[in-house]
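User: Could you go from structure to sequence for me? I need the amino acid at each position, not a summary. Structure tokens:
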């Protein structure tokens, strides 16, 4: 009997040791995996992250985690706290290189001597203008920027099922003030601008587009035309209303801005031959909206395209004082043009 009890105790002890060693090995594996990421992040290429004004460890850790830069945000926050980084975060673009550790990232975040360039992308700029501006600012070359304009490189809802056209991202590079640095990867720049658009085009806007039976691309296309047709804040929704009225009546939009986009210049007065150019962007030749946006519109014009002003007007012309005169009939429109020397 004593021998059986001894064997039983021995079996329990062996089981305990086996479980203990399994736990130790599991902990070692987990610790090794965490330690590996802490010392050397696993990203395929150098990238950047934009630290918002007033951001702390929690929000920055979440940004890094969502962008796939770090795997363990809680560990990042712990290192930030114990390392004395928490109160020294600096806003702006942070360069993150392959193989960096969490401490390296934090050191870059607290630096206040970054070689950052503030780049203002005005509302209504085209992709071509944005590329030229970035080149002039010494951020990246035009060719590098153009190479990063492939929609398949980015995962955003609004980029799904875009029509086939040359500049698929035209309209979606949101105009704003950005912090960049010389040599910044063009893909990161494009992604930063797309992310800004994503923040502006809310769930409410997707729902509104469905309610009025238009696609997001049609909304942005209309917004881009409004952006290039008027600078007056109080006119945007009314201009959108006029263009929707023309579409609903089967009339051509006859937007000079669409022809200027084809020409690649803001020609003050279009010739007859200009208006006859065969292009899917020419609204003097084709009915309805052009094949895509003709510029990158701001938030106000996007809102105007979604919530146009109800109006009976079908025409508008720029007056001598810089405001538009809206007319319901072509005769009224001709009179307005004559009164303003057009």
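Assistant: Here is the amino acid at each position, in order:
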């Amino acid at each position: 009997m004593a021998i059986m009890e001894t064997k039983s105790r021995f079996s329990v002890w062996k089981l305990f040791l086996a479980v203990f060693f399994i736990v130790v090995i599991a902990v070692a594996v987990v610790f090794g995996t965490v330690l590996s990421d802490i010392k050397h992040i696993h990203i395929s290429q150098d990238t950047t992250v934009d630290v918002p004004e007033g951001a702390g460890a929690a929000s920055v850790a979440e940004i890094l985690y969502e962008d796939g830069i770090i795997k363990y945000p809680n560990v990042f926050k712990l290192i930030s706290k114990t390392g004395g980084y928490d109160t020294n975060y600096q806003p702006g673009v942070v360069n993150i290189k392959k193989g960096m550790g969490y401490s390296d990232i934090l050191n870059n975040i607290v630096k206040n001597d970054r070689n950052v360039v503030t780049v203002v992308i005005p509302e209504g700029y085209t992709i071509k203008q944005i590329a030229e501006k970035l080149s002039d600012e010494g951020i990246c070359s035009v060719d590098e920027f153009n190479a990063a304009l492939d929609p398949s490189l980015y995962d955003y809802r609004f980029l799904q099922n875009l029509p086939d056209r040359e500049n698929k991202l035209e309209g979606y590079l949101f105009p704003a003030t950005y912090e960049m640095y010389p040599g910044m990867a063009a893909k990161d720049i494009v992604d930063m601008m797309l992310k800004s658009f994503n923040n502006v085009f809310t769930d409410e806007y997707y729902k509104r587009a469905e309610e009025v039976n238009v696609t997001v691309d049609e909304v942005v296309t209309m917004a881009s035309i409004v952006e290039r047709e008027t600078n007056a804040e109080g006119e945007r929704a009314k201009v959108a209303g006029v263009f929707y009225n023309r579409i609903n009546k089967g009339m051509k939009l006859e937007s000079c801005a669409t022809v200027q986009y084809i020409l690649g210049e803001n020609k003050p007065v279009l010739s007859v031959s200009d208006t006859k150019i065969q292009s899917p962007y020419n609204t003097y030749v084709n009915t309805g909206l052009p094949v895509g946006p003709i510029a990158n519109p701001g938030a106000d014009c996007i809102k105007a395209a979604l919530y146009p002003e109800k109006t009976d007007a079908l025409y508008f012309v720029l007056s001598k004082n810089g405001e538009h005169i809206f007319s319901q009939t072509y005769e009224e429109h001709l009179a307005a043009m004559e009164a303003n020397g057009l």
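One structural detail worth keeping in mind: Residues 2-39 form the longest helix (38 residues).
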